[in-house]
Amino acid sequence: MVRLKFSIGLNYAIAAPGCDFIFSIHAAQTPHQTVVNELLQISQPVQSNIYTDPFTHTRFLRFHAAAGPLAVHYGAIVDLAHFTALPETIPEVLVANLPGAVLPYLVPSRYCPSDRLHRLAVKEFGHLPQGYSRVQAIRDWVTARVSFQSNTSNGNTTAIDTLVDRVGVCRDFAHLMISLCRAVNIPARFASGIDFGADPSLGPSDFHAYVEVFLGDRWYIFDASGLAIPMGFVRLGTGRDAADAAFATMFGGVTGSAPVVQIEAIPNAEGVLVQPVPVAHGLSTDGQTQAF
Predict the structure, then answer these.
(1) Is the pTM for the entire model greater than 0.70?
(2) Which CATH architecture has domain 87-244?
(3) What is the DSSP letter of 116?
(4) What is the pLDDT of residues 194-218, one digit of tens each?
């Protein structure tokens, strides 16, 4: 079992008359991701509440903050007891047999216009054997064709832009992989976490976007950017694309500085330090999702 300790620090300057915030910075509680302990600190005396989505397990923190400075700090210790499976045992699922809750992840969304990539996806991946290996081939294709470069995209950048420009940040890699999966009828969703194990030359730890693909009876983890270690991802939120899983959504006049994120592996409950490492088998922190 992997045990990770992490913290997130956010700082804002809020204009009058104040701002409503929706954060997705709490670690999700899933069948294979357990929050051992956590602490939330908010510098203003706000009335906050947390809503947990019953399907994705995303936890949304909401409150109204007054004009002036605002600091939000969240820290947690999380245990990851991944579900693992051999790639050759993980099948794709016929659309007719998919659970109803999975169906929204088959269709185009704001940043993932999968309908426009159908012809390309069929040409590149339509002939491949179905299953985990085909999804891995899509992941490898994206990783090989897109280069990571900071500050190369913005809130309007879609998977089409990333395909044309061939540069982007982690969310752009994720959007392109998601779009290609959906284009060949494989449900895929956007996930936000923290970039454990990323190359320090890329800068300090930060939020990280990755992909979860529905295969067999659960969601499996893929990192289209190839920059981090999937075994070390702490899931925060999931959605159709980045519009659904932003770490902060604000309604009001506000400016903010770069998040301060830290993460490390620590000894687990048995006193054993398990460092996340790259693995060849399928990984999931989700539970089974039954078709009927």
Answers:
(1) yes
(2) Roll (3.10)
(3) G
(4) 988 877 777 788 899 999 999 999 9
